[in-house]
Write a structure and sequence with these properties.
heterodimer, A: about 130 residues, alpha+beta, five-stranded mixed sheet, 2 helices, B: about 500 residues, four-stranded mixed sheet, elongated
C-alpha cells in the first residue's frame, strides 16, 4: 500500500472517531487486531457493542467510500467481531456493525461524513 | 423474549393450526424464518420489516428467529405475514400478549403496512372450531367469505397499525355479522336464460333430460350453431344450489382465490369452460403442493369442454376416474390431497375437422379418413361416460328472425326439480342420486320395460348395430325421460327418444 493511502486512511479514522463521539458512541478500542485482521473501532452505544468499519476516499470517481465495503469485507468484519466477543466473553450481548464513510477533498479536508447503522443486517442465509 | 401468535395454514380444502413463535435474543441483528417455509413465506421477511417500519413501529435490531409450528407441514403463501409481524411486535413488548391468544390471524402485508387479501379464508374459518378458537382477524376483503361460517367472530382489518391497536384495546372493531342464508339468496341470480336461445327445441329438450337425470352431454354441430350458448345456459336449469353445496364449492373457490370480495358465497352453480390447451394438472389439480383444478372448481356445477377433440388426449383420460367417483385424489411427494369433483360434463365438438359434415347448406371437404382420425381422438372409455349425444344443426333463417322468445329457464327448472325429487325418493336406499349413476344390477330393478318397448330395443340392437355399452346408456336415459313423463314403466316412445340421443353409436358418419 502506498504511503499516501495509509495517510488518507489515518486522517479518515481520526475524523470519524471525532464524529462518532459527537453522535454518542463511546469508543472502547481503536485498531483492534485479531487473528483475522483489524477492527477500525469498537464502541458502545446504548445496549449495543458496535464494531465500526471506517472507509475513507478522496476521489469519488469510483463511487462513495462505503461502496467498497463489499459482502466479502462485511463477512471479514463479522469474523473479527466474533473473535473479539469470544475473547471478552460477550457473545450473548447485542452487537452490530456500523460503517462510517468519510469523503475527503484533495486537500484532505472533510467534505462529507456518513454513518450507516447496522450495515450488515440484510444478508440472506447465515453470515459465518 | 418469546411470543406466540395463532394462525392457520390451508391444506387442500381444509386448514390446520399454525403457531408463529418468535424469539428475540442478543447477537448480530438477523431475521430468520424456520418451519418449512416456501419462497413466498421466506420473502415475507422483507415485507414484514418494511411494514413494521412504515406503520410507525421500530423493527428490533436483534437476532430474531421465527418458527412456524408444526415444523413438518409445508407453509405456503403470504398469509403468515400478519401473524409473524404481530409476534415480532409482541416479543418487543409493543403488544399485550394476554390479548393475543383468543385470536387467529391471517393476512398478507404490503410494504406500507396495509393488509392484502389472502387465499383460503373460508376453509380457515371453517376449521376454527376444531382448534377451539372463535375469533378470526383477517383483511377486510376476505371478511365476508369468512363471516358465513356460524359461531365465529370475524374482525375485518385494514392495516397492521389497526391490528396492534385492536389487540391493545385502543381501537374498537365491530364483528362482521352476516346472515349466510340471506347473502346466499341474494346471490342466487343467473344473468343468462334459456329463452335467449332461438329455435333448437330438441337440443333444449336434450339438455333438460341431461339436467334432470345428471347425464353428461356431448353437443355435436357445425361452427356457429349455438353449442356454447346452449351449454352456458345449462346451469340455469339445474336445481338451485343448497347452502351446503354452496359452501363446498365456495371453499374450493376460496382456496383458488377466485371468490370476489363483495360476494362471500357462490349462489349460482359454477360454469367452467377451460380452453383446450389446458394441461392435465390444470384440469384435475396438481403442482408440488396440489391446488384444485378445473374439475374441482366446477364442483356442483358444469364443466364445459368446447372443441373436445382438440384437447390433449392424456388430459381427457385423467378426467375419467374423477367422473366416476365424484372426487379426485392427487398424490405428490409432499402431500396427498382429495378434492371433491361432482360435476356435469358438457362437451362440444364439430362433426368433422372442417365442421360442416352435417350441414345441409355447406359442403364438407373432409376425407373419410380425416373424419375417422378426428373422431378417434375421443377414446371409447370417455364416450362411455357420456350418456347423451345431441346434434345441434345450423339455425334456420325463420328461427333466427323469430321475435317470439322461448321457454324461460324457470319453467324448465320446475320440471327438472320434480324429476330430481322422484330420483331422490327412489334411490334413497341405494346411495346414488341420479339415473346417470345406475349400475347394471340396478338397471334391471328400476328400468322396467313394457312389451312394446322391449321389442323396439331388440330391433334397435339388431338394425342399428348398437353395442352392449350403448344398451345400458339407452336404458338410463329412457328412465329419465319416463320420469319427466311421470311414468313408472318405460314405454316405447321413451326408448325411441333415448335412441335418438346416441348418434355417435349409430355410425352416422366416419
Amino acid at each position: 500500500m502506498g504511503r499516501e493511502k495509509i495517510l488518507i486512511g489515518k486522517i479518515g479514522e481520526r475524523k470519524a472517531q471525532g464524529f462518532l463521539k459527537l453522535n454518542g458512541y463511546k469508543i472502547m478500542k481503536a485498531n483492534y487486531r485479531t487473528f483475522f485482521g483489524e477492527i477500525d473501532a469498537v464502541a458502545k452505544k446504548g445496549d449495543f457493542i458496535v464494531f465500526i468499519e471506517i472507509k475513507t476516499r478522496v476521489s469519488s470517481s469510483l463511487g462513495p467510500p462505503y461502496i467498497s465495503v463489499t459482502s466479502q469485507k462485511q463477512r471479514h468484519i463479522i469474523k473479527n467481531a466474533l473473535s473479539y466477543l469470544k475473547r471478552y466473553g460477550l457473545t450473548d450481548s447485542n452487537w452490530r456493525v456500523d460503517v462510517v464513510s468519510v469523503k475527503l477533498s484533495y486537500k484532505y479536508e472533510v467534505e462529507n461524513i456518513e454513518l450507516i447503522e447496522n450495515a450488515t443486517e440484510d444478508y440472506e442465509g447465515g453470515w459465518i | 423474549m418469546i411470543a406466540k401468535v395463532y394462525s392457520s395454514c390451508v391444506i387442500g380444502v381444509d386448514a390446520c393450526e399454525v403457531i408463529a413463535e418468535t424469539d428475540t435474543s442478543g447477537g448480530l441483528p438477523n431475521f430468520h424464518i424456520v418451519g418449512l417455509p416456501d419462497t413466498a413465506v421466506k420473502e415475507s421477511r422483507d415485507r414484514i420489516k418494511s411494514a413494521i417500519k412504515n406503520s410507525g413501529f421500530s423493527f428490533p435490531s436483534q437476532r430474531i428467529v421465527v418458527n412456524l409450528a408444526p415444523a413438518d407441514i409445508k407453509k405456503e403463501g403470504a398469509s403468515f405475514d400478519l401473524p409473524i409481524a404481530l409476534s415480532i411486535l409482541s416479543s418487543e413488548g409493543v403488544i399485550d400478549p394476554s390479548g393475543l391468544y383468543d385470536f387467529v390471524f391471517s393476512g398478507e402485508l404490503s410494504l406500507d403496512g396495509k393488509l392484502k387479501p389472502i387465499k383460503g379464508a373460508l376453509p380457515i374459518a371453517m376449521s376454527l372450531e376444531n382448534i377451539n378458537k372463535k375469533k378470526f382477524v383477517l383483511p377486510k376483503e376476505n371478511a365476508k367469505e369468512a363471516a358465513v361460517v356460524k359461531d365465529i367472530e370475524v374482525y375485518p382489518l385494514e392495516t397492521l397499525k389497526d391490528a396492534v391497536d385492536f389487540i391493545n384495546k385502543k381501537l374498537d372493531i365491530k364483528v362482521l355479522a352476516l346472515n349466510p342464508e340471506q347473502l346466499f339468496r341474494k346471490s342466487c341470480k343467473y344473468r343468462k336464460d334459456f329463452n335467449d336461445v332461438k329455435g333448437q327445441e330438441h337440443v333444449k329438450r336434450g339438455l333438460e333430460i341431461a339436467a334432470a337425470g345428471g347425464h353428461n352431454v356431448l353437443l355435436i354441430g357445425p361452427p356457429g350453431s349455438g353449442k356454447s350458448m346452449l351449454a352456458k345456459r345449462l346451469p340455469t336449469i339445474l336445481s338451485d344450489m343448497t347452502l351446503e353445496e354452496s359452501l363446498e364449492t365456495s371453499k374450493i373457490h376460496s382456496v383458488a382465490g377466485l371468490l370476489s370480495p363483495n360476494k362471500g358465497l357462490l349462489g349460482t352453480r359454477p360454469f367452467r369452460s377451460p380452453h383446450h390447451t389446458i394441461s392435465d394438472a390444470a384440469l384435475v389439480g396438481g403442482g408440488t403442493n396440489p391446488s384444485p383444478g378445473e374439475i374441482s372448481l366446477a364442483h356442483n356445477g358444469v364443466l364445459f369442454l368446447d372443441e373436445l377433440p382438440e384437447f390433449k388426449r392424456n388430459v381427457l383420460e385423467v378426467m375419467r376416474q374423477p367422473l366416476e367417483e365424484g372426487s379426485v385424489t392427487i398424490a405428490r411427494v409432499s402431500n396427498t390431497l382429495t378434492y371433491p369433483s361432482k360435476f356435469m360434463l358438457v362437451a362440444a365438438m364439430n362433426p368433422c375437422p372442417c365442421g360442416y359434415f352435417t350441414d345441409p347448406k355447406r359442403e364438407c371437404h373432409c376425407t373419410p379418413f380425416q373424419i375417422q382420425t378426428y373422431l378417434s381422438k375421443i377414446s371409447g372409455p370417455l364416450l362411455d361416460r357420456i350418456d347423451i349425444h345431441l346434434e345441434v344443426p345450423r339455425l334456420k333463417l325463420e328461427h333466427l328472425t323469430d321475435k317470439r322468445r322461448g321457454e324461460p329457464s324457470m319453467e324448465i327448472r320446475k320440471r327438472v326439480d320434480k324429476v330430481r325429487d322422484i330420483q331422490k325418493t327412489r334411490y334413497k336406499d341405494d346411495g346414488i342420486y341420479f339415473n346417470a349413476h345406475l349400475e347394471s344390477k340396478e338397471l334391471e330393478k328400476y328400468c322396467l320395460l313394457d312389451k312394446e318397448s322391449e321389442d323396439l330395443l331388440k330391433l334397435a340392437i339388431l338394425e342399428l348395430g348398437i353395442s352392449a355399452r350403448a344398451y345400458d346408456k339407452i336404458l338410463k336415459v329412457s328412465r329419465t325421460i319416463a320420469d319427466l313423463d311421470g311414468k313408472d314403466i318405460i314405454e316405447a316412445h321413451h326408448i325411441s327418444e333415448a335412441i335418438s340421443y346416441r348418434s355417435l353409436d349409430r355410425n352416422l358418419w366416419g
